[in-house]
Design a protein that fits this description.
The chain is mainly beta. The chain has a single domain, classed as Neuraminidase (6 Propeller), CATH 2.120.10. Helix content is 9%, strand content 37%. The protein is built from three helices and 26 strands. The chain has a four-stranded antiparallel β-sheet with strand order 5-4-3-26, with no helix packed on it. A four-stranded antiparallel β-sheet has the order 6-7-8-9, with no helix packed on it. Strand 22 and strand 23 form a beta hairpin.
């Protein structure tokens, strides 16, 4: 038989085999697109540009969302909501200089802008243990940020400090009697953890070691803070008298952490800049593991009052946009991700309270 005939027969069989084996690939569901598909439920008349609050959706997946899990849950709405409220830093435009303090319920309702002075920057809010007031830092003049406390019912504001330096991260003690905070020196550009009475009196350093972004332990006897005293930025704890200082685990962190209400767990965030994740670990720093869905550059976690949930800021909808951070909540095991805000500007530094 002619050799050319064999060649033509072979080519024909190859084409038929390839045709039978080809099928359309199954598209994967995009996490960011799924989050963006939620339905608006309200706005904020106080902001220069009204905030669009969105009905949170359930992703229902742990650390790595899958196409099937994301698509199957995107049409369902959560029926249970965790307790408490979340206070956070909210911008009124795409500029850090417009940072204000806002509060929201954990179901995305009840939004309220608390601070009203557009000429000043406001940061690091946290709720008092009884949920009746919020403390925060605000710009006063060059090289000076002061700490203030606002009564949520009346709106009355009290200035607690007077030219101690650049102050931030204030938090009221579990017994309601003291406030911890950080102060940075304009001369050395180093931060130290301070403590003062609730009314602003008797302010002094807890320790002379470098440290910032402190948070109280539930027992009121220990403080967790961030420091680079050993090189990498890591978590440290010490007693409120400055004694018993030691490092908590070996995780390189990005900043502020939080304790669970029972004192057994710590949440923080770490990873490469631009690709942060939320981590949970035991209170001794062991067994650290990421719990946030990947791909959101997640930061600044805080436990719910019942210890079952975590709030944090992330960029799931606007990854790569410096103004794209929003407030999210998820269960402490990394499931049931829900978005609470959606704006053209940044919402960050959430702290959960009563």
């Amino acid at each position: 038989m002619d050799k050319r005939l064999f060649v033509w027969i072979g080519l024909l069989l190859t084409i038929l085999a390839c045709s039978l084996g080809v099928s359309e690939p199954t598209p994967t569901t995009d996490l960011f697109a799924t989050l963006s598909a939620s339905t608006p439920v309200g706005g904020n008349p106080n902001l220069t540009q009204p905030a669009q609050l969105f009905t949170p959706i359930v992703l229902g997946t742990p650390v790595q969302p899958t196409a099937s899990a994301t698509s199957s849950s995107s049409t369902s709405q959560p029926t249970d909501w965790p307790p408490g409220r979340i206070v956070y830093t909210c911008q009124t435009s795409r500029s850090q200089s417009t940072s204000q303090i806002c509060i929201i319920n954990t179901d995305g309702t009840g939004f309220r802008r608390l601070t009203t002075d557009d000429s000043r920057q406001h940061y690091f809010p946290s709720l008092s243990p009884d949920g009746r007031s919020v403390v925060y830092s605000a710009f006063r003049q060059g090289n000076f940020y002061e700490i203030y406390e606002m009564n949520l019912a009346s709106g009355d504001v009290k200035q607690l400090t007077n030219k101690l330096g650049n102050l931030g991260s204030p938090e009221i003690s579990p017994d309601g009697k003291s406030v911890i905070f950080e102060t940075s020196s304009t001369n050395t550009n180093k931060s130290v953890v301070w403590r003062m009475d609730r009314n602003g009196e008797n302010a002094d350093k807890i320790s002379r070691v470098i440290g910032w972004e402190p948070t109280w332990a539930p027992d009121g006897e220990n403080v967790l803070f961030v420091s680079d005293m050993d090189g990498a930025v890591q978590l440290f704890r010490m007693r409120t008298n400055g004694k018993d200082l030691h490092r908590v685990g070996n995780l390189a962190v990005g900043g502020r952490a939080d304790w669970s209400p029972d004192g057994q767990w710590i949440v923080t965030y770490g990873g490469d800049p631009g690709n942060r994740e939320i981590y949970i670990m035991s209170n001794d720093g062991l067994n650290a593991r990421a719990i946030s869905p990947a791909g959101g550059n997640s930061r600044e976690p805080s436990f719910s009052p019942d210890g079952q949930w975590v709030t944090f800021s992330a960029y799931y909808d606007h990854l790569g946009d410096a103004h794209g951070c929003e407030i999210y909540i998820m269960r402490a095991n990394g499931t049931d991700l829900r978005r609470l805000t959606n704006n053209d500007y940044c919402d960050s530094q959430p702290r959960w309270g009563q």
